Amino acid sequence: MRLSRRVLPWIAALAGLSLGIGLIWGFFFTPDDYKQGSTVKILFIHVPAAMMAINAWIMMLVTSLIWVIRRHHVSALAARAAAPAGLVFTLIALVTGALWGQPMWNTWWEWDPRLTSFLILLLFYLGYIALWSAIEDPETAADLTGILCVVGSVFAVMSRYAVKFWNQGLHQDSTILKVGEKDPLDVAYYVPLVICLVGFVLFFILIVLLRTRMLIRARRLIALEARERLG
Amino acid sequence: MELRVENLAVARGGLVVLEGISFTLCPGQALVLRGPNGIGKTTLLRTIAGLQPPVSGAISAATDDLAYASHADGLKSALTVDANISFWASVYGSGQTAAAAALDRLELTALRHRAAGQLSAGQKRRLGLARLLVTGRPVWLLDEPTVSLDQAAVALFAGVLRAHLKEGGAALIATHIDLGLEEAGGLDLTPFRPKHQRAVAGGFDDAFGEIIGAPG
Amino acid sequence: MIALLARDLSLAFRAGGGFGLGLAFFLLVVVLVPLGVGPDSAILAAIAPGVLWVGALLASLLSLDRIFALDHEDGSLDLLATAPLPLEGVVAIKALAHWLVTGLALTLAAPLLAVLLNLPAPGYPWLLLSLAVGTPALSVIGAFGASLTIGLRRGGLLLSLLVLPLYVPTLVFGAEVVRRGATGLAPATPLALLAAITAGSLALLPFAAAAAIRVNLR
């Protein structure tokens, strides 16, 4: 708690700074794509949001495992705290994807493997959050959502492959990892994109920290109330 | 087959409800747990039955010595009395003769072709208790076994229990009614209430309730 | 174990046991889709594999919440957990009973309903085979979902929300087998993947479900 309070303002400032620089640079100081025009600039939100949507789930998996194995309470609450953030990132990725897809592929929605996977991921997030909020006892809720998260992860990976198998898709391949090769993504985009990515990561950490602190306080309140009642 | 409980603490809803309980139950003995509603009799029985983990302390008994009978009888109202008891007889591998004998002992033989849903509350309870006989297990953990039984049925059940003890069985009973078992010891749970309300160590309330003083 | 299976089956076939409900629902889906989509037999033939699989999936979803909830209500789940049966085995048996009552019945009914949707003739054996291979996975995944929502009073909707995303791979591969079979492509690959999902789910999910039940009974 104490440590988190001390680092919070720094993370907030850094997140704001890198997001500000990255987005402004990305939106106003990069050239238009010769094919996609200025619509390409939505990638500065779309790509980091999509990456964070997956990273948030991975973080939930890790913290759930820490809870299941080591029974570390903050870890369970951190997993819970990350879920709504992951859900929102998934939504942002889907919405910006739709906005980008409209001028590019001339359709708002396409049952493309990547898009479909994100839709399924959205369902996973919804189920996870719903299970947390449905169970009163925190220990039971933490255990059951932990089990769901682990099993869900396996099925999420299977769904990804299933969906890939099912439709080869319109979506361009992920560009970011290919920079080293034939450089399909211009350096002009690459630098602000990385700054945006850092900003999104910091922003995510900020939200998770804030929400974890909030959940810890809520638990503390319940514990205090229970103590009050019982004398 | 001996049930030994040492320095046991049990919890409900993240709070310790009973602690420091020790007793030994030898063959032929019965122990009646007493105490006001909500003191944790059910929690104690469930913990000993292995349905929930103890907070601390030890329970030494082979789990296949224990037969637990909860508030609910676990009856399927769509099935006949016969089918209900035979099911548990085959789960415990004790065979159909044991099932018929159990029904006989609790005077349910005449009702055996009735659906369990059509029984009166007391008859259901007797059927639930008949299940204990087909488990073939020596140590019975009974949670309010006499609820909704009339006087005659209580006496009937006390007879069954006495016979079970004579055969070297044992029973741990949470009840408010005097079963008239002279050989049964009593254990008042009131002194085992924790002096101060406290959360289970390592539980959620403990993890976050104890750092109230900490800033941030 | 066998006694448990027999008990669950006889309960399912009795009044209020839910047998037939799934089949009726399956029939409803298959009747309603052409009414909504229109009578064009070419379109119906094209969407038949997917509609049949989605219908079977939704129909098996219908009775999932009964797998453990009823036993929890009347106390028999507590008693089963203290009985000399491994809880993992109880889960497996209950999933098997669910499959025999819904999955198997749906599998056998599917070819009849496929006639209504003009499924091309080569698709029939693959429809039967893919449902026979895939519906056990639906039952065991469903049993896992049901084990998570045991203690909840209105767990039905939550259960659907939890289970549907887990059903995705099964649905995708299952419908793909039929689609490929119906159009004369080789359905071996998706069939193998479908079988792998079923085998993996059957092997691992009973353990996860038993762990969840223990947590819920605590």
Structural commentary:
The complex is a heterotrimer of chains A (231), B (216) and C (218). By secondary structure, chain A is mostly helical. Chain A has helices spanning 2-28, 43-70, 73-105, 113-134, 138-166, 187-230. Mean pLDDT of chain A is 80; it is low at 177-183. Chain B has six helices and eight strands, in the order βββαββαααβαββα. In chain B, strands 5-6-7-3-8 form a five-stranded parallel β-sheet, with helices on both faces. A three-stranded antiparallel β-sheet of chain B has the order 2-1-4, with helices on one face. Chain B starts with a strand and ends in a 7-residue tail after the last helix. Residues 211-216 of chain B have low confidence and may be disordered. Chain C is mainly alpha-helical. Chain C is 83% helix and 0% strand. Chain C has nine helices and no strands. Chain C has helices at 2-13, 21-37, 41-62, 66-73, 76-82, 87-116, 123-148, 155-182, 188-217. Chain C starts with a helix and ends with a helix. Chains in contact: A-B, A-C, B-C.
Biggest sheet features of chain B: 5 strands, parallel
Helix- and strand-based class of chain B?
Answer: alpha/beta
The fraction of residues assigned to DSSP E strands of chain A is: under 5%
The stretches of 5 or more residues of chain B where confidence is low (pLDDT under 50) are: 211-216
